[in-house]
């Protein structure tokens, strides 16, 4: 296990040095075939925890894509505030890194917990599954900042919903970049992929702490 630990740290170092270059050189658009598909299958970003080094390139790429830093009215390519990333890497000791991202739950406990009445025309609560992307979105205009969605997600699933400390409303969660998942494209270790949601898969809907506890036992024989 020592060897594995050492290799992971080496990876992190290498990634840290290369991350800026990577973002500057590779930031761009790519399309996936499913983006145009009329089939309404649920897709999510799946993490291979054996490959993730905790380099956080995914956080940097996600925030740069969705919330680019703007200076003098111009957005700076490849630069974003990781606070707004829709994928969040949780690091544990012993060395286990768990990127947390919406699992696009078919039964969506977050949506069910929202007390805002469905809009008559669209059937949407303040948090809803978007028809086009089949991802979970929040409408800040209708949201009453009660935090019920975040609580339901934390108690029943991944706990991925983060509430903005100023507004008390959920920050946006993963929308699969509208069909061009940037984190998947730019992860330097190919730890991320887009897959169809399978509730039977091993770590589906689990919190980072639960996943890390399980992996720590497997990899290091220790409980976190
Ligand atoms: S998923 Fe990839 S990009 Fe994100 S921290 Fe892990 S290795 Fe880095
Ligand atoms: S409960 Fe959490 S993980 Fe599941 S769809 Fe809602 S936000 Fe995503
Ligand atoms: S698919 Fe896009 S929105 Fe989702 S976590 Fe990755 S970069 Fe962020």
From TrEMBL:
InterPro entries referenced in this protein's UniProt entry, alphabetically: 4Fe4S_Fe-S-bd, RnfB_subfamily, TAT_signal
Keywords of the record: 4Fe-4S, Electron transport, Iron, Iron-sulfur, Metal-binding, Transport
PROSITE patterns in the cross-refs: 4FE4S_FER_2, TAT
GO molecular function: 4 iron, 4 sulfur cluster binding; metal ion binding
Coiled coil region boundaries: none
Annotated CDD domains: DMSOR_beta_like
UniProt domain 4Fe-4S ferredoxin-type: residue ranges: 43-73, 92-124, 134-166
Gene3D superfamilies: 3.30.70.20
Taxonomic superkingdom: Bacteria
Keyword Cell inner membrane part of the UniProt annotation: no
Protein name in UniProt: Iron-sulfur cluster-binding protein
Species the sequence originates in: Thermodesulfovibrio yellowstonii (strain ATCC 51303 / DSM 11347 / YP87)
